[in-house]
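2024-03-11 09:14:02 DEBUG pipeline.ingest accepted 1 chain
2024-03-11 09:14:02 DEBUG pipeline.ingest length=402
2024-03-11 09:14:03 DEBUG pipeline.predict start
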Amino acid sequence: MAKRRILFVDDELNVLEGLRNLLRKQRHQWDMVFATSGRAALEELAKAPADVIVSDMRMPEMDGAALLAQVKQLYPQTARIVLSGHAEREAISRVISVAHQFLSKPSDADTVRSVIERTCSFQSLMEDEGMRRVVGTMEQLPSVPETYWALTRATEDPRIGIGDIARIVERDPAMSVKVLQLVNSAYFGLAQRTESISAAVTYLGVENLKGLLLAANVFRADGPSVPGFSIDRLREEALLVANLARAMTKDRATAEAAFTAGLVHDVGRLLLARAKPELYRVVVEEVRGAALPVRVVEKRTLGVAHGAAGAYLLGVWGLPFALAECVAFHDTPSEVRDGPRDVLAAVHLSDALIGALLEGRDPVATGELDLAFVESMGLTAQLPVWRERAEEAVQRAAKGTR
């Protein structure tokens, strides 16, 4: 396997030397290049593109944000990581749209190595020949809704309050209806119904809103026409998975991330159905007639599975790496060997349990539930509890009481 080319950029030589020493053990796997300025980094990239660039934020002449903006434009395939101790809100808001990941400075060797290795693993998934062949047939990829970016920009501004957020949602009639519909559903169990967008926004939280926006755009009405493939069914299943995944997590930040990931975890199925409707009809028919996971039939028929396709789309949209990674590996979580995996675990368990119940299958027998991963996360004893919660959710959905 060819070495990955990793470019480190910092105007302080001692920092670069420190990184070189910390990562000495990686020299057999990585071709590491070091540059002392943004200009020097661009010169190195002109010689040979890098798989990953790790840049300091504060540098004279061209800072990390300006450098990564150019890298994003000239070398979009390069993964972009910011390594900096400068965490002021203004600086982060400038770099958030051009960096895939953030590392604090100083960071230990294991942290830097882990982040770069996970990034490279994710890149390998995106470089799959089957992916290029399938996605290359599409005239254009779906675009992320403008309201999503408006919400993202607003949350980066400390002066923006919940009233301003509500006004952004109100500018999107379809989103307003979706928000009120969800908040007033039995899923959230409010004591009384509300027709206030502001109250709904307060209750849901911004991250959940952003997740709903993505889902609304993904599951829009002009979807693919594939016999036996229902967008409405996929939408309903996504919401079931999202709510169960959120319930499985322990803290609020993780819960919101799990909800969003649950909503969009199967976006790749829509992408593949839109790209290859005739072949996806074959996938649907084979899955219906055999006790095989969807991803296995997709890979055999199309050359790529929906997890990779969905992650590819989220990557094109410039969404957070952690979200795209969760979508990529939600069916095969054991492939993510280190780093935070709580959200991945919640989405994997929820998806396997809900999907099996809806289809009347045993997720263990079909291989949809990764038992080795579940055990590694210490969740085996909790499986009966979550299976019961999943059954209750599916039963409520069947009765239309959500």
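2024-03-11 09:14:41 DEBUG pipeline.report The chain has a mean pLDDT of 81.
2024-03-11 09:14:41 DEBUG pipeline.predict end
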